[in-house]
Amino acid sequence: DAGITQSPRHKVTETGTPVTLRCHQTENHRYMYWYRQDPGHGLRLIHYSYGVKDTDKGEVSDGYSVSRSKTEDFLLTLESATSSQTSVYFCAIRGQGSYGYTFGSGTRLTVV
Amino acid sequence: AQSVSQHNHHVILSEAASLELGCNYSYGGTVNLFWYVQYPGQHLQLLLKYFSGDPLVKGIKGFEAEFIKSKFSFNLRKPSVQWSDTAEYFCAVNADTGTASKLTFGTGTRLQVTL
User: pLDDT per residue over A3-20, tens digit each?
Assistant: First the structure.
């Protein structure tokens, strides 16, 4: 969607390597979220941010870390990728005082 | 913590058939409810949302949903499905918890519409 981009769109990486996914927004929204989507599980929240340098864990945060050093970028890092982290990762943004979420196009990550 | 249940995992309908997808949520406070659709290979798109007011909400592409507070339900309906409605549908609840409100999703319902 306009205003939110994810990179890369696709990535294949080896087990044990670190991986960083980027979510970039041009909406100046306060809130940013990382979800993973897996068959049979829907979308599950990994981490979220409620401001620059303010982040918190979601329901499936083990093995992931995040950083937000500026409003527009929210980075998701897999510290040491495992095959169980093969998934599609979606970023979402939300403005303060709004309950409208906008989702990015997703990053398909394969860990071999 | 809030949770969302979608009881239909895979639904197959013929074109022109009526659709109803179930969604039940668990949360004790004020909720905002959403239905999203994901067409094959694409990202999530908002179908409709309920914040307050009329419990019958209308969305895009002829979809509607009814919020029944006493049943903690927010079922999605469409009177006559089209082949192009083939997609995965997700119900979600937004709740304010701690530092920010967050969306919690159901596991999704895969709809297949046959010609």
Answer: 999 999 999 999 999 999
